Each structure stands twice: as structure tokens, then as C-alpha cells.
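This protein record is not my work; I was only asked to verify it. Where you disagree with what is written, explain briefly why. This is what I was given:
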Amino acid sequence: MAMHTELWFPSVIWSAIIHQIDNKALKHFAYDRKKNDVGRVISNYNGYQSSDILPGDHPEIDKLVEYLNKEMNACAKQVGLPELEIGNIWLNINPPGAYNTMHNHVGATLSGVYYVEAENNQGNIIFQRGDNGEYHIPQYVEDYTYYTSTQATYRCKTGALYFFPGWLNHSVEGNRSNTDRISISFNYGVI
């Protein structure tokens, strides 16, 4: 008799590369916003994080949100969640040396990031296992799998879009290039 396999409490990460967004327009908006918005410091070190962007602040952000709404709710449906609405969205500009410390998005059901301008050596996003499994998994596993890994790394790349549970701890590596990494982060929940 074969054992029946069930997956409980999985950490799901969705990813895509999208091409429908005018990243040049978003880049200009990001730098204009930085000039006029002091922003905030939450998980960012030596980088800029804007205050929340509101509907109507920029047409390309509105276009992105329209796309996110559709895709986010398709993902929510896959895992049995009700329809979600955007809670907030903001810009990140991480110059050389900037990074984001380990954090999660308190109160968000699903969160995500879209890379407006990003390339190799600008800092990948790293998701951490949150169930303390690292204390129980044998130290010398030869081939790490989704079950035995303690972290998952996703490349920063222009046009990359990642969705993940708001409670999933993550950080962003330091920018080791000579140019800024620009991204847009967002939170969704039942509102």
C-alpha cells in the first residue's frame, strides 16, 4: 500500500516576466516621486521607499495595478482565498550598497514585487523558511528540494513579478552594481 501524500502549510511563490508595462515611464515617475516625497524607512537600508502611491498618481501605476488585480485574484483563487483588493503600493529605489533586511508584510494576505529596472548584481530577493525546519533537516542533504531547502532565491530582473504570502519572511541582497535597482512593492488583503 502506498502512502497518500498531502501538502499542508505550503509557502507558495508565483513568478512571471511581464512586458505590458512602460518601465521607462515608471522610472521617471520613481525619480520624480523621490524628489517630492520624503518616503519612509521600514526594511530598507540606505535606499528610498516612497509613501503609498494613490490611484490617479500616475497612469502607468494604474495600468500596473489593473494587471496586478487580475493576476493576484487568479493566484488567490488557486489556493482557496476569497477575492483580494490592493491595500497599498509603493516605490523602492536601492542605489549601490542598499538592501532590505529580513521582514514580512504584517496584515497582508498576499504581497509582491515588480522590478522596474533591475539586473545582475543588484540584489536578489531571498525567501526564508518560517517553520524552523532547519533545526530538524539533516545537515548534509545532498540535493536540496522544495521540502528540505531553508531558503529560496529569486533573481532581480527587469519585468520580473513575484507574488508571495504576506507572512513569508524575505530580504533583498545588497546592490553590488553601480546603478539603482528600482522596484514597486504591494500588499493585498480582504478589505
About this structure: The longest strand covers residues 85-94. The chain has a mean pLDDT of 95.
